[in-house]
Amino acid sequence: MKVTILGVRGSIPTDGPECCEFGGATSCILVEAGGQAIYLDAGSGLLRAPDTGAADVSILISHSHMDHILGLPLSPILLSKKRLDLYMAKRDGLSAEEQLACLMAPPLWPVGVERYPAEVIFHDLELPLQIGDVAVRGMESNHPGGSTIFRLDHNGRSLVYATDYEHSEEKNRELIAFAHDTDLLLYDAQYTDEEYARMKGFGHSTIAEGMKVFERSGAKRVLFVHHDPRHPDVKLREMEAALKGKNAALARAGEVIEL
Q1: Which residues make beta-bridge pairs with 120?
Q2: Distance of CA 47 to CAs 27, 29, 155, Å?
Q3: What's the gap between Cα 36 and its chain centre?
Q4: Integer CA distances (angstroms), 24 to 103, 162, 231, in order
């Protein structure tokens, strides 16, 4: 598995010299394995989607909050003539296609998906599923409106993408089992402990809680994602310094990990 971090900012894109190191683009992770190019979420990081050659292209969307889909309208994928398989769970009685149409239709956007060169095939997410030789499993997150946590396995390697997740004792037990022995855990740590005390119920977690899941699951490595848009590089470096090299770090846009 080759994992490319394209965007790890949460809630809204940011810009400016104070966020160059970790990046300001919202959630998008590219996983390449077995002739498949699988994107996890379609935030503004999707605008940096690289040329993946002849690989089949899929997008697994955790949920349709704006920061996780706003990269689609101008993404290189939709502007290409490739086939794109897009998977997202039904929410609030709306199919994957209907949810995306809330963004990509007037008055918010001038044209619908059908006007793009790409052939987009919508799938209402049903798990587990196979994308080529890549096995995809999921569990429901703890997040307002719902969200899907994904696990991808291929050839004895795996990753777990647990963004937009708020910890609780019960959910942590479920996530620890789900992430058992994974090679890479991507965990939502938008808030500091002090911020979480004020933001409880907003659907995000902390580094301290993520370390509990990491250590108890037997995961080999953890990268923290969904950085708060109010946290500049200097703040994120401070948060990372407390980890002291325990196979744990804060994810940076542009980072490439070989599993």
Answers
A1: 84
A2: 11, 12, 29
A3: 17
A4: 21, 19, 10
Token pair for residue 12? Answer: 């809204």
Global confidence as pTM = 0.96
pLDDT digits (tens, 9 = 90+) for 199-218: 999 999 999 999 999 999 99
State pLDDT tens for residues 132-182.
999 999 999 999 999 999 999 999 999 999 999 999 999 999 999 999 999
pLDDT 10s digits, 5-43: 999 999 999 999 999 999 999 999 999 999 999 999 999
Spell 8-40 as b/e; 16+ CB within 10 A means b: bbbbebbeeeebeebbbbbbbbbbbbeebbbbb
Can you spell out the DSSP letters for 116-175?
A: SSSEEEEEE--SSEEETTEEEEEEE--STT--EEEEEEETTEEEEEE-S----HHHHHHH
**Contact present, 10 and 27 (Cβ < 8 Å):** yes
Helix%, strand%, coil% for the chain, nearest 5:
20, 30, 45
Quote the radius of gyration of the chain (alpha carbons, Å): 17
* Mean pLDDT across the chain: 95
Would you call 216 helix, strand, or coil by DSSP? helix
Residue 218, Cβ density class (10 Å: 0-12 exposed, 13-18 middle, ≥19 buried) = exposed
In the chain, the domains with their CATH numbers are: 2-258 (3.60.15.10)
Task: Residue count of the chain, please give it.
Answer: 259
